[in-house]
Amino acid sequence: MLIPSQIQTDSEDFQKNYAANRLLCDELAERLDLVRKGGGEKIAQKFKARKKLLPRERVEMLLDPGSPFLELASLAAWDMYDNESPGASHIDGIGVVNGVECMIMGNDATVKGGAFYPMSVTKSLRCQQIALENRLPTIYLVESAGANLLHQAELFADSGGRGFANQARMSAAGIPQIALVFGSCTAGGAYVPGLSDYTVMVRKQAKVFLAGPPLVKAATGEEVDDETLGGADMHGKISGLSDYTANDDVDAVRIGRAIVKYLNWSKITPPNWQEPEEPEYDPDELLGIIPTDLRRPFPVREIIARIVDGSRFHEFKRDYAPTIVTGFAHLNGYQIGIVANNGVLFSESAHKATQFIQLCNQARVPILYLQNVPGFMVGSKVEREGIVKHGSKLVNAVANSSVPQLTVIIGGSYGAGNYGMCGRGFDPTLLFSWPNSRIAVMGGEQAAGVLVSVQKAALKLKGIEPDHERLELMRQEIVKKFERESSPYYATARLWDDGVIDPRTTRRVLSTAVSMAYNRDFITEKAPRYGVFRM
């Protein structure tokens, strides 16, 4: 049924919220624009002078005209490494190439020659994980100076080789991988084309070798030039590493698109698919619904109404446990189940959500979690009711769910509420955050109150009178620390999500996400087995 909206767009509260959230969205747009400039205009001009496409131009040319590109972790490494690695020096995302949804992973060689930083590795591993779980053909756009040696201790031993292991496992799982090599690909990076199913190299530009001429000379005394050692012609005619030799960047992209065309790739037809409908209400109104103070609750049905098809929602257990909202809807034609916070979680909230998650798994329906959760209720009454064991049932259901699970943090994400609503630790298929969101064990004020109280108690045990001025300074520092570390930009820099998104784009982002999920055959899988539920 249609969700009736109670929002008054001309109210003072709406207008105040809208203005504040518009500023947050403008700030997000500015940061994304900065990252998309890569290494800057000077480097871009060097690329153009050499008649090379810029990394983002390669991505754009690879995609089907007019098709969406869901860029992932755009702000990875934000405010890290002295801002030397915008976007973690990588351009990754999900896009359509010759009608096939693909994972596209490209080095941004305008940034330090595409050198890998620790977060570059983390970002590329996350994208490979998404591709492996959702059976996405993967296209690598390769041009990299290799590991940033100043950070080698942080990226080599544990995670440096994991990307190559992933490539081998993806190939074994029948997931096609295509490497388009536009420039240097040295040392360990040489294994990217080596482990791909198809490799395309650009003549007079692509270089693939385990060691470059200077190291070869130092190690063996042999003097050899780049082209003879590992150029496209050598690998195409002699070593056999390259399957296709391209004349230039544009030709390499053309060949890559042709390879995808002949993959003979298809995905399952989604059951209960319907012709997509735009929401009845304008998604732009989301900015006026989100309060400026996250401690204030906001009606989550109003959010759902501006995301789902026709603003229609078949709600489950509407009158029971009102602080959690559950039900079925369609999103761009795809059926989904929705679990959304409407306040603090109680025992009955956990009961309701657990049952609904099990129903979605029985029916093989993807689940969308909308997180705005202060956590589970606390106090002696709820402890006696068994809130820990009831919350554990919800955690069990989320952890063992075997249908695609998508999460959007639309407000606060605190404490165990983050776990029960499919936070990062529960491996959601994709997880996104809004720019107003916060993620932490608890809010800064609450954390400061707890820590100051502990400090007071410790001093009294020693017979020392607390210095209230000093304790107040301590409280302020704790609040600042929590505010900084719970910011969506702090989180996304460290890949705690797959990207910060403008609330108004949520429907488009989720449409790509749920469509992508149907590349894996979860429909014919059996409903999961669950662990022990404490009754």
Provide a descriptive summary of the structure in words.
With 535 residues, the protein is of the alpha/beta class. Helices cover 41% and strands 17% of the residues. Strands 1, 2, 3, 4, 5, 6, 7 and 8 form an 8-stranded mixed beta sheet that branches. Strands 9, 10, 11, 12, 13, 14 and 15 form a 7-stranded mixed beta sheet that branches.
Secondary structure elements and pairings:
Elements: H1 12-36, H2 41-49, H3 55-62, E1 69-71, E2 90-97, E3 100-107, H4 118-134, E4 138-144, H5 152-155, H6 162-172, E5 177-186, H7 191-195, E6 198-202, E7 207-209, H8 213-220, H9 226-230, H10 232-239, E8 244-246, H11 249-261, H12 286-289, H13 300-304, E9 314-316, E10 324-331, E11 334-341, H14 347-363, E12 367-373, H15 380-385, H16 387-400, E13 405-414, H17 415-420, E14 430-433, E15 438-440, H18 444-461, H19 468-485, H20 488-493, H21 506-517
Parallel strand pairs: 3-4, 4-5, 5-6, 5-7, 6-8, 11-12, 12-13, 13-14, 13-15
Antiparallel strand pairs: 1-2, 2-3, 9-10, 10-11
Keywords:
535 residues; alpha/beta; 8-stranded mixed beta sheet; 7-stranded mixed beta sheet; 21 helices; 15 strands
